[in-house]
UniProtKB/TrEMBL annotation:
Residues 125-261 form the Exonuclease domain. The keyword tRNA processing applies. This is Dihydroorotase. One of its GO terms (biological process) is 'de novo' UMP biosynthetic process. It comes from the Eukaryota. The keyword Signal does not apply. It comes from Steinernema glaseri. SUPFAM superfamilies: Metallo-dependent hydrolases, Ribonuclease H-like.
Amino acid sequence: KASGFVHAAKMYPAGATTNSDSGVTSVDKIFPVLEAMAEVGMPLLVHGEVTRPEIDVFDREKLFIDEHLRRVVERFPTLKVVFEHITTAEAVQFVNEAPANVGATITAQHLLYNRNHMLVGGIRPHFYCLPILKRNTHQAALDFTGIKLDHPLRMAVSEESALTDIFRGVRKALKANGCKRAILVGHNSSFDLGFLNAAVARHDMKRNPFHPFSSFDTATLAGLAYGQTVLARACQSADIDFDGREAHSARYDTEKTAELFC
């Protein structure tokens, strides 16, 4: 993580998906790695399936929760865990009942399709994916409770509406300070600027106040000023408190970056 390039680590059980034959064969054996990840605030991304050949392919996710994931969450209470591409009602229940440091992702195909689409009327291989599609009751569970629209930190608005509000405030600041263009400041700012430019193009937005290719990268500035490119380590070098459990929260990282440079 100190390199500034590794932001998370993903665990693939051996044989769980494409090209994963050299994956993890024993979750217990990587406990020292998980402990180190918890200490530095690095998220663990999990492909959650057991792969023993005698296990029914439709039960792989449920058994992984029972045999491994529940134990990992209990043993490492500060480890940030993302249960990736969940497919079952059991996974939805597990994440909803888990502490705040446990989250999940859901893929579009598991919201749109179930195993009937793959098997009824003959095998339709173009619906095959890993994790495999499940029964329609699991699909309904993902659709109904998979995304918390009322989460207090969500406060979601449309992308175009959010950008319009942001641009309005930025243009007001530009006018007040006699500037022509705003410069995006961020940790690994080229990454953020690329997303911003793509969103502007996606909505054909006019009068984008940000410079299209110039930005100030606080990772580079931190390396120059403190000899550290990782935000947490730069804050430590500047004697600024940094809570690793909050790392990579957009709001927290923004506040700490501002505290470091403003």
